[in-house]
Amino acid sequence: MFHVKQLLPGDDAMAADAGALGLDITPEQIISFRLMADLIAEAAPRSDLMGPGELDRLWPRHFLESMAYELMLGQERSIMDIGSGAGFPGMVLAIRGFRVRMLEPRRRRALFLELLLQRLGLDGSRVERARLEESKLEGDSVLVARAVRPLEWLLDALGRIAASGFTLVTRVGPGARIREEWGWLDLPEPPLDRPGRLVQVRQTGRVGSGTEGTARQAR
User: Would 4 disulfide with which of 34, 96, 161, 196, CB 3.0-4.6 Å?
Assistant: First the structure.
């Protein structure tokens, strides 16, 4: 069995890394992160949550990178996490106060996410065992994704199911092509352990009408 203290850094180091992103972290959130890390370590071997090597970089690669999504989101709205997997970024954002609808088609992972919600007491969020193509988007939906599918595939899929506009925030590699009208944010390395960018794509108006997303340069 893995122990949380071996997986995540000390409280002060976690607070310093969050501060380097321009974010605060509360003692209660640190406790929740540690509990989440402990449950991931226990479930990973039997639930195919992530590879063994990922447990050694849970904090910079998964928790901290998930927190960075806040820099391109508005906390007044609920969000959908496409392919939540072990809970990144959706469960981390739920701990941080967002209302999250987590899409996860795989049974074992969906059950694990439901366990996390229960153990963490996150009543405002929920798990939906479904693929993106099987879902419905209402109003101007806000979505996040991480290591799911190529960006162009996501945009095409969203265009097929969205009745109106949407905002998508996702991570892309450092060499990915970014359109001029998209907002973007370089992810700092360190405190993260790999380079990359968060991209924000906004589609306004009725999807499929040819309306382009609004341009926004992230700060």
Answer: 34
